[in-house]
Design brief:
The complex is a heterodimer of chains A (about 475) and B (about 100).
Chain A: H1 8-16, H2 22-40, E1 43-46, H3 48-64, E2 75-79, H4 106-114, E3 117-122, H5 156-163, E4 169-174, H6 180-186, E5 189-192, E6 212-217, H7 220-230, E7 260-264, H8 274-289, E8 293-297, H9 305-320, H10 339-350, H11 353-366, H12 371-393, E9 398-402, H13 418-423, H14 429-434, E10 438-446, E11 449-456, H15 462-474
Helix pairs in contact in A: 2-3, 5-6, 7-15, 9-11, 9-12
Chain B: H1 5-14, H2 21-38, H3 73-76, E1 83-84, E2 87-88
Antiparallel strand pairs in B: 1-2
Helix pairs in contact in B: 1-2
Classes of the chains: A alpha/beta (about 475), B mainly alpha (about 100).
Chain lengths: ~475, ~100
């Protein structure tokens, strides 16, 4: 069995017994990248020298014995919108193609404290705007299950790298589904934590009221380990939550007896591929057999979520991306006549079409005369969407549905049709607007492409989400399937 | 409500974007399609609904007002496209 198919505990046992070294793990990573990344294109930047040096250090520590970090020696990929000191961070954008960050994101510091190894930076839709990785301004990542198909997005590189066995785990970011949807398309486990649980400091901001960092892994237990390393209050993030952090791994006891599951009829209605629906219904049968109960519920504002999201996220983005002006970092246009022209030309040359489109939409929605009709209206509808969740969670422990309405689509199939592309996020966006946690786990295949099951929990109740996901995984084999590369 | 190429030019100016004629045409069509879809929200009565800007019940998070270490000027200038004497250099603002 390849080392990256082992559970974290098994890897650590092999390190202890000297069957494996950290250098072996890092070699495995770069060898796999050398074999597969010409076709997958998951990586934008490799950290080979840094990773090998770190591996030697950890191997020395292994010889000497003593305490080891939670993620000791595990090769990790990091989405390219999470800043890494001294390692290029481009956000998938030409604007930042040479950007060499001067500090580490809090999550990167936490990974260093947990002693994982940074293998490189992962491809993404430019500034996390997109659901297919086709908006990367460098090259599109491809789905390891079929390279004619998209890996999803915006954390497409993060999902594909784990699915292809290039890294043991990766970090992604999720604003409207950007961890969960690519996890579903690539057949891996992707967790979006509750808003505020994981620090956003050093995550290049897209939509600040929605952005969250989370792990992509091969199984639920590893997801719990990585979350354990990432979660916690950070004074550098003013929206960081002061909550007690439970023992996530310990919560995986397989017991879902008596758990009450709500299944929104809106998540299995129009636009949902029958094969996806069937896979979700099969998963619910597994829960029934384990002693949980499920009932159909209604979340009547679901149909308004996509419009609400695109107004709010684009408005926040238009404000956040104002910092990219060509003055302090990033590209600067040649020979501008004056300062305004410097801003205008630098931004126009540096941003791709989807980023321009969202900045334009957001600027319009926030502009004088339209603010109440679009931005404020969307904020109010966000309240109604959040109330849908509160109402269901008053009577149920979890909400379950599909992660995405269909499996992955072909590269090029939806380019030029932004609205259709946006509707791929119909099942993930409401969760982001409500700020609650959700995980996507593999629950089947349609024509050789993976399908994801989305398990949604109450705010800060990651333990129930992980426990339910883990119990399902223990009784199914979908997560053990690997793409042939 | 439908937006025109002129509206697109106005918004592009606010957003400090320079668009080609082709981009303006394309964006006019696409923004109209997206805004038309967003008009769906008008179906909902939200007169007595409070807006949500944020899901966490936190406001005005303060830190202690004390002097702390910060990045050096040299570090801060590391990615500057143009600089002079430890300052970001831009074209003249005043004639």
């Amino acid at each position: 069995m390849a080392p990256f198919d082992l559970r974290l505990q098994e890897v650590h046992n092999k390190l202890t017994s000297k069957e494996l070294s950290v250098t072996d793990l890092v070699n495995e990573s770069y060898q796999r990248i050398a074999e597969t990344d010409a076709s997958i294109q998951a990586f934008l930047t490799l950290n080979e020298d840094g990773a090998r040096a770190a591996a030697s250090e950890l191997d020395k520590q292994l010889q000497e014995g003593g305490e080891r970090g939670l993620l000791f020696g595990l090769p990790a990929g990091i989405k390219d919108n999470i800043v890494t000191e001294g390692l290029l961070t481009t956000c998938g954008s030409q604007f930042l193609r040479n950007h060499d960050p001067i500090y580490n994101a809090t999550t990167v510091k936490k990974l260093m404290a947990a002693q994982s190894i940074t293998i490189g930076k992962l491809n993404m839709d430019e500034f996390a705007m997109g659901g297919s990785n086709e908006n990367s301004s460098f090259y599109p990542t491809r789905n390891p299950w079929n390279t004619d198909y998209v890996p999803g997005g915006s954390s497409g590189g993060s999902a594909a790298a784990v699915a292809a066995g290039q890294v043991y785990f990766s970090l992604g970011s999720d604003t409207g589904g950007s961890i969960r949807q690519p996890a579903a398309y690539c057949g891996v486990v992707g967790l979006k934590p509750t808003y505020g649980l994981v620090s956003r400091f050093g995550l290049v901001a897209f939509a600040s009221s929605l952005d969250q960092i989370g792990p992509l892994t091969k199984n639920v237990e590893d997801s719990a380990y990585v979350l354990q390393a990432l979660a916690g209050y950070d004074e550098m993030d003013s929206t960081s939550a002061k909550v007690d952090i439970p023992d996530y791994v310990n919560a995986l006891n397989g017991d879902v007896k008596g758990l009450r599951i709500g299944v929104p009829k809106e998540y299995l209605g129009q636009g949902i591929d029958p094969k996806v629906k069937e896979a979700v219904l099969q998963a619910l049968k597994v829960y029934e057999s384990l002693g949980a109960t499920w009932e159909e519920v209604s979340m009547p504002h679901t149909e308004y979520a996509v419009a609400t999201y695109y107004l709010l996220a684009s408005s926040e983005a238009s404000s956040n991306l104002a910092r990219f002006d060509g003055v302090r970092y990033g590209v600067r246009a040649d020979n501008p006549d004056n300062l305004i022209e410097l801003y205008r030309k630098s931004r126009s040359q540096g941003f791709g079409p989807e980023v321009k489109r969202r900045i334009m939409l957001g600027t319009y929605a926030l502009s004088s005369g339209y603010y109440d009709a679009y931005y404020l209206k969307a904020q109010k509808v966000r309240t109604l969407i959040k109330q849908d969740f509160d109402n269901v969670f008053a009577n149920y422990d979890l909400i379950i549905g599909p992660t995405a309405p269909t499996p992955a689509f072909r590269i090029g199939e939806q380019v030029g049709d932004p609205l259709t592309m946006y509707l791929n996020d119909i099942c993930t966006i409401p969760v982001s607007l409500a700020g609650v946690p959700a995980i996507s786990v593999p629950c089947g295949f349609a024509d050789g492409l993976p399908i994801g099951l989305q398990i949604i929990g109450k705010a800060f109740d990651e333990t129930t989400v992980l426990r339910a996901a883990h119990a399902y995984e223990q009784h199914t084999e979908h997560h053990k399937q690997r793409p042939q590369l | 409500m439908s937006i025109t190429v002129k509206d697109v030019e106005h918004v592009a100016n606010l957003a400090r974007l320079e668009l080609s004629e082709q981009e303006k045409e394309q964006l006019t069509g696409q923004l109209n399609a997206i805004l038309k879809y967003a008009e769906k929200l008008g179906e909902l009565d939200t007169d007595h609904v409070e807006p949500t800007s944020h899901v966490l019940p936190v406001t005005n998070v303060m830190r202690d007002d004390r002097v702390r270490e910060s990045v050096s000027v040299e570090t801060a200038m590391k990615n500057a496209p143009d600089e002079e004497d430890g300052q970001f250099k831009v074209p003249a603002v005043l004639e």
